[in-house]
Amino acid sequence: MFEKTTGFRLFFWIALIAIGLFVFFPLYWMLNTALKPHTETFTLSFVPEHLTFSNFVNVILDKSIMMYLRNSLYVSIVSSFFTMVISAYAGYSFSKYRYRGRTSFMMLILLSKMFPHAILLLTIYTMMKSYGLLDHYLSLILAFVTFSLPVGTWTMKAYFDQLPDAIIESAKIDGASQLTIIHRIIAPLAVPGLVSTAIYGFVWSWNDLLYSLTLVTSPEKRTLAPGLILNYISEFQESWGAMMAASIVVSIPVTLMFIFLQRYFIQGLTSGAVKG
Predict the structure, then answer these.
(1) Is residue 261 classed as helix, strand or coil in its secondary structure?
(2) Any residues with CB less than 8 A from the CB of 27 and at least 6 apart, and which?
(3) Are 246 and 187 in contact (CB under 8 A)?
(4) What angle do CA 88, 92, 97 make, to 5 degrees?
(5) Rounded distance, CA 230 to CA 214, Å?
(6) Which residues contact 178 (CB under 8 A, 6 or more apart)?
(7) Distance between CA 232 and CA 243 in Å, rounded?
(8) What three-state secondary structure class fits 238?
(9) How far is residue 164 from each of residues 152, 186, 197, 223, 252, measured CA to CA in Å?
(10) Which residues contact 219 (CB under 8 A, 6 or more apart)?
(11) Which of 43, 124, 189, 198 is deepest in the core (most CB within 10 A)?
């Protein structure tokens, strides 16, 4: 236990303020820029001299931003769903079954997370091109599910490890099949792990720029990240105020989702952290 001396309290408050500034100042400056008129974008003022909501109004009325938002929601929801389902089955297999090659396969899945995504893009782009999946949402969904699976699988394995095997043995004695055990007994108990895996997959898909910019090129199929950049920042124009406003507006769905589901998310991530 730390002794709460004057020096400790001073260090605590200085560290807290420094971390708070590091985390929240960029968000404040983004909001500050969005509330400034275009002529004051690069003025060093912490409070806008001429407050305006025109950037937010333009974003809301811009049909292309709403189209990017809809596309991102579709890709992210589908990706997170498949990430959750596949991770759940894989995690259950690693946790509750013992078979030859199990540990090696688990390490192999974890090792796949170590490769830089930018390097894997070359291989994935060639593969998608050969299968005719370029400029199709399926290419993005397959890529996002692939990158989310290692963390999702290990998260679900850690959660299933916490569930006692006696539950499964009791269900078997009562005559329940494996599918019944997984879907009707284990799955309801693993809701926090499933939610945290789904949120991870959703946020991964939502924030991606590199793959979204490369694999899907049609303007009507663009997702948010490449859509915002190509819409507001180009060789002949730059509208930082509008881009900041758009970034705030499109962050609302993810923020709301995390606020409502943070209890499950934290519970799912911390499962397995303490054993005893």
Answers:
(1) helix
(2) none
(3) no
(4) 160
(5) 13
(6) none
(7) 6
(8) strand
(9) 21, 10, 21, 42, 39
(10) 64
(11) 198
CA distance 196 to 148: 12
Enumerate residues 6+ apart whose C-beta is below 8 A from 177.
none
Contact 146, 207 (CB under 8 A): no
Structure tokens at 100: 């030859």
Sign, CA dihedral 126-130-132-137, equals negative
3-state SS class at 253: helix
Whether the CB-CB separation of 109 and 177 falls below 8 Å is answered with no
What CA–CA distances, in Å, run from 34 to 3, 30, 50, 62, 203? 44, 6, 12, 16, 23
Q: What's the predicted TM-score (pTM) here?
A: 0.80
Residues sharing a CB contact under 8 Å with residue 250, sequence separation 6 or more, in sequence order:
65, 68, 69, 72, 224, 228
CB 235 within 8 A of CB 110: no
Report pLDDT digits (tens) over 126-169: 999 999 989 899 999 999 999 899 989 988 888 888 888 888 88
Burial of 15 (C-beta count, 10 Å sphere; 0-12/13-18/19+): exposed
CA distance 269 to 276: 17
Given the structure tokens 């124009």, which residue do they identify? 237
List residues bridging with 238 in a β-sheet: 233
Instruction: List 233's β-bridge partners, or say none.
Output: 238
SS3 category, 235: coil
